[in-house]
């Protein structure tokens, strides 16, 4: 009997640990969500179209949007952390052309301190310094025609058309039914133009930071303290991620060389490496990365043979891979 006690104790502790994690992905209705309202000087199109980011369970620090900070630890080694006290939204503007015309992508990027370790629910994305991107595609009349959401690891990409997109640009197998993206439900179509004084809101699942809802919301309600905790998130050029203050100089959020070139420092994902590294032929699978780094595909399909076709860096090719005919 004495030999069984350690196992019983282990099972009891494991059960408590697993049960204690179950709340991490559940929305706590007793706590007001936090909304991040982009603000500050930015190009007119960037400021006008900037989405509002909504996070649930803001009492848990890992759910908060932050700003990358660089420091040296006690051994003199560089450490990157996300500072939720000064949230920031980073933007980039990229023009591109297809056979149908000229377009402009407005790219918005945010980061979080972490996805906590959890077995129930199982968070395969356990790690630090992860983030999300929202890409709003404007046509030649400056109308949003597509809203693309994706983790900065390239995971869970979703493309949502607006009513301004011509029907002939939709995939041949397009359905008017809501999109199911690995357990989350996103709309099949966004109205355009939206009602006056409405803003696009992107909502994130607590814990794992998956996009769980995209919708137009009234600006007045988003600023109502009875409904939300409102934070101002500074709009900053994406280039600033390459110049994080460190001592008397600067450093980049991204590794500048070696096998992790273009990946976010400190964003290792142990479970994804263990479970998906071999099938994807990429030990850095799931690790968050830069957008636009040559030689580091921002692939959105884990199929090794689709690495370049699904690369978000080449947006027209990315759209063709996923069946869009823009």
Q: Overview of this structure, please?
A:
The protein is built from five helices and 18 strands. It is of the alpha+beta class.
Notable characteristics:
about 15% helix, about 325 residues, alpha+beta, single chain
For the secondary structure, the number of strands is 18
How is the main sheet built?
A: 10 strands, mixed
> What is the helical fraction, as a range of percent?
10-25%
What's the multimeric state? Answer: single chain
Termini separation comes to 69 Å
Q: Can you write the helix and strand succession as a string?
A: HEHEEEEEEEEEEEEEEHEEEHH
Q: Helices, strands, pairings?
A:
Elements: H1 5-20, E1 34-39, H2 44-49, E2 52-55, E3 67-72, E4 78-83, E5 88-98, E6 101-111, E7 114-115, E8 127-128, E9 131-138, E10 144-151, E11 158-161, E12 179-181, E13 184-186, E14 198-204, E15 211-218, H3 219-222, E16 229-237, E17 244-246, E18 249-251, H4 270-280, H5 315-321
Parallel strand pairs: 1-16, 2-14, 5-16
Antiparallel strand pairs: 1-2, 3-4, 5-6, 6-9, 7-8, 9-10, 10-11, 12-13, 14-15, 17-18
State the gist of this model.
The protein contains 5 helices and 18 strands. The chain is an alpha+beta fold. The chain starts with a helix and ends in a 5-residue tail after the last helix.
